[in-house]
Design brief:
Elements lengths: L1 E3 L15 H8 L8 H12 L2 E6 L4 E4 L6 H8 L5 E5 L4 E7 L6 E7 L5 H46 L3 H11 L8 E8 L5 H11 L5 E4 L6 E6 L3 H12 L4 E4 L3 E2 L3 H15 L6 E3 L12 H11 L8 H16 L2 H8 L3 H15 L6 H14 L18 H5 L2 H12 L8 H10 L4 H8 L3 H15 L8 H13 L12
Parallel strand pairs: 10-12
Antiparallel strand pairs: 1-4, 2-3, 2-6, 4-5, 5-6, 7-9, 7-10, 7-11, 8-9
Length: about 500
């Protein structure tokens, strides 16, 4: 057996090797051919022998297992010697140290005939190529881990914003993106692409915004990228990105406080539905008249405080958790809300059921969902410290708020848009809402096919300029309009409304 020190290792370059085998070996450094296992297989054929690449622990990385002396392998991986040779009548063995970013490996080559100069050169240069490939693979893996960790951190920040924990969100963001969330308000954008190209589009969003926005791969929708930014320049940067890709769409919210990120996200998704029919494939949420803005703000806050009073007995963190989860759970499906919050869907459902029990409600009723949604979104503007006594008239009911002339006029104008349709979609929509959004039950009541109900509801969406088949703010506003004009009964729950 023979060995040599690290400092004596050959430093020849492949460029000076010359023979055809060197050109073949160089091919393995091209991007399309960078595979350690393929290099080891090539070496086996080039020297007509068996090859094994293993680490210090004996784990086989590539090739075929060979019987090796453990002490000799240890000497090589520990750096005491750089290479070794062993010969017998039946076998000739060469072992070469292969550097690795985290630990050394051993390249072992066994053949029946002695190693000539050519075979020795092939083994030496192949070891150098393997070193390069292992280093490149480690660097690539480290880059993937870093990008994954950064992506997970961005998602965590978004989830904190979704549950209105802006203090924690700013604290987490400050370490990597100083100043990103320093503003009090921001817009939310949703870029829609095909799921297969979503990762590339997310990277382009980062580049387009100069990493001055929170860019998150949506955990609920495989083709969506969510962008949260306080900067006005972000909108034009994203519009330009969408213009360069034929299959992208962009929906944006109006500016909202960071505590209302979930509301802004809902607006962006709503705008995205409009963007699919726009020539420029972009749309911003239309700032329209919302029913709560037509109500007496003091009376509305007082009513909201009374409706949500059963939750006031809970610890502050529990109450905040329930409010945030139910706000998202009413805006989206339980499954999607769970993905956005980073919890299980059973957790979302359990929290919603707990609020149902505290308020004495049944979320299967769309009118109840609309009323609670109104209270929860009004509650965002209330101070954390609740007043000892309600403001406004303690006997004021939601029916009183909805019967105001401004609200009734808004509701009549909105639903009146459907009256011109001879199919009477207004009656279908009213029946569908009363049936909890269930087309089959509504069809039985109307004596028509369930598909007819769905078609009527779907045809009402562009007329009302609101999404109805997906739960959320749009649907709940239409429900409130029905309550305001008296087409549906105001729900009676918790015996306070």
């Amino acid at each position: 057996m023979a060995g040599r020190e690290d400092g004596n290792r050959q430093q020849e370059t492949l460029a000076g090797a010359g023979p055809a085998w060197a050109e073949e070996l160089l091919e393995h450094l091209r991007p399309a051919g960078r595979d350690v296992r393929r290099v080891v297989a090539w070496l086996s054929g080039a020297v007509r022998g068996s090859v094994a690449l293993q680490d210090a622990a004996g784990k086989l990385i590539a090739g075929n297992r060979l019987p090796l002396d453990e002490d000799l392998v240890t000497d090589i991986t520990a750096g005491r010697i750089a290479s070794a040779a062993w010969e017998s009548r039946e076998r000739h063995l060469r072992l070469v140290r292969v550097e690795h970013p985290s630990h050394a490996c051993v390249l072992a080559v066994s053949r029946e005939t002695p190693f000539d100069r050519r075979a020795s050169d092939v083994v030496t240069h192949t070891a150098q190529v393997i070193e390069l490939l292992l280093a490149a693979r480690e660097s690539t893996a480290a880059g993937h881990r870093l990008r994954r960790a950064t992506s997970d951190l961005r998602l965590a920040i978004l989830q904190l914003l979704m549950v209105e924990d802006t203090v924690a969100a700013r604290r987490v963001a400050a370490g990597l993106w100083p100043g990103l969330l320093d503003a009090d308000t921001a817009c939310v954008y949703v870029v829609e692409s095909g799921p297969a190209v979503r990762d590339r589009i997310a990277e382009e969003c980062l580049d387009s915004t100069g990493e001055e926005a929170l860019v998150v791969r949506c955990p609920a929708m495989d083709g969506h990228v969510i962008v949260v930014s306080p900067r006005d320049a972000t909108r034009e940067a994203l519009r330009s990105l969408v213009g360069r890709h034929p299959d992208l769409f962009l929906g944006g919210s109006v500016r909202q406080s960071l505590a209302r990120t979930a509301t802004a996200y809902g607006q962006a998704v709503s705008a995205l539905a409009v963007a699919r029919f726009r020539p420029d494939k972009t749309a911003v949420y239309a700032e329209r008249t919302h029913p709560e803005r037509l109500m007496d703000p003091v009376a509305l806050r007082g009513w909201t405080s009374r409706v949500l009073r059963p939750l006031d007995t809970l610890p502050h963190h529990t109450r905040a958790e329930l409010l945030a989860t139910n706000r998202l759970g009413l805006e989206f499906t339980a499954v999607n809300a769970a993905k956005v919050l980073g919890v299980s869907r059973n957790t979302v459902r359990a929290r919603m059921e707990r609020v149902e029990g505290l308020l004495g409600t049944d979320f299967a009723d769309l009118t109840v969902r609309a009323v609670v949604h109104l209270a929860l979104n009004t509650q965002i503007g209330l101070p954390d410290a609740h007043l000892a006594s309600d403001t406004g008239n303690p006997g004021l009911r939601l029916s009183d708020l909805l019967s105001g002339p401004a609200v009734r006029t808004w509701a009549q104008d909105l639903l009146g848009r459907l009256d011109a349709d001879a199919r009477n979609p207004r009656r279908t929509l009213r029946t569908w809402i009363a049936a909890g959004g269930n087309a089959e039950r509504a069809a039985q009541t109307l004596g028509v096919h369930a598909q007819t109900v769905r078609e009527h509801v779907r045809s009402a969406e562009p007329v009302l300029e609101r999404q109805l088949l997906a739960a959320g703010t749009d649907l709940y506003e239409v429900v409130l309009a029905h309550l305001a004009v008296g087409d549906l009964d105001v729900p009676d729950f918790h015996r306070q409304d």
